[in-house]
Amino acid sequence: MAGAEVPIISSRVLTLPNLLSALRLALVPIFLVLLVRGADAWALLVLLVASLTDYLDGVIARRFNQITRLGQLLDPAADRLYIFAALLGLAWRDLVPWWIVLVVIGRDVFLLGLGIVLANHGYGPLPVNLLGKAATFCLFYALPLIMLGQAFPMLGWWSLPIGWAFGIWGAFLYWWAGIIYAFETARVIRIPRAIPSIRSDTIGG
Predict the structure, then answer these.
(1) pLDDT score of 124
(2) How far apart are CA 182 and CA 101, in angstroms?
(3) Please, what is the average pLDDT of the chain?
(4) Dist. CA 22–CA 6, nearest whole Å
(5) pLDDT of residue 1
(6) pLDDT (tens digit per residue) in 76-126
(7) Long-range Cβ contacts of 4-13 (<8 Å, 24+ apart)
(8) Residue 64 DSSP label
C-alpha cells in the first residue's frame, strides 16, 4: 500500500490562496477599529468574512496544489493578528483585563527570543506542536464568544462564560506550549553539529 502523497510546497507568490490570505490581513485594522468603537456586530461580521477566507484558502491550496511557503507564513500570522486585535480592542474598552493581553503577547515575545537563539545556532523555527495548536484554537474562539455576548446581550448568559473558559484555558495552554518550546530549544542547540572531515589525499593537491 502506497504512502500518503506528500504535498509540493512552491515558492509562488501570486496564487488565489495567498490573495485570500492578504485580504484577511487587510481586514485586521478594520476589525480593530470597529471593535474599539464598540461596533461589535460589524466586527463579528468582519471576523466571519476573515474566517471564511481562511477556510477557502486552505481548501483551494490543497485541492489545486497551491500550497506555498508564503501561505504557510501568512496563515498563522493572520490568526495571531486577529487574536492580538481582539485582545487590544476588548482591553481598550475594559471588557478584558490587560494582564491577559500581556500574557498572550509576552508569550509570543518569548518565542521570538527562542527563535533568535535557534537562528544563532543555525536552526530554523521549531514545528508547531499540538498543544500550541490547541491553545491558539481556544484563544481564537474565546474572543469572538466574548464579543458575541457584548453585541447581543440576550446571548451573553451562555457565550460569556464559555468565552471566558476558553480564554483562560487558552492562555494557560499558550504558556505551557511555550515552556515546551523552550525545553525543545535547549535540547536542539545542545546537539553537536557535524563538521565535514577533510580527506588527507586532497591536501597539497
Answers:
(1) 77
(2) 21
(3) 85
(4) 26
(5) 45
(6) 888 889 989 999 999 999 988 999 899 989 998 999 899 899 888 888 777
(7) 7/62, 7/65, 7/67, 8/65, 8/67, 9/67, 9/68, 9/69, 9/72, 10/66, 10/67, 10/68, 10/69, 11/68, 11/69, 11/70, 12/66, 12/68, 12/70, 13/68, 13/70
(8) T
Q: What is the pLDDT of residue 150?
A: 86
Q: Measure the CA–CA gap between 36 and 40, rounded to whole angstroms.
A: 9
Q: Vertex 109, ends 106 and 113: CA angle to 5°? A: 135
Q: Count other C-beta atoms under 10 Å from residue 204's C-beta.
A: 5
Question: For residues 7 and 69, which has the higher predicted lDDT (pLDDT)?
Answer: 69
Distance, in Å, from the CA atom of 163 to the CA atom of 168, rounded to the nearest integer, reads 9
The grid cell for 63 is 485541492
Q: Name the residue with cell 527562542.
A: 114
Q: Which cell numbers in the block locate residue 193? A: 553539529
Angle at the Cα of 131 from the Cα atoms of 125 and 135, rounded to 5 degrees: 100
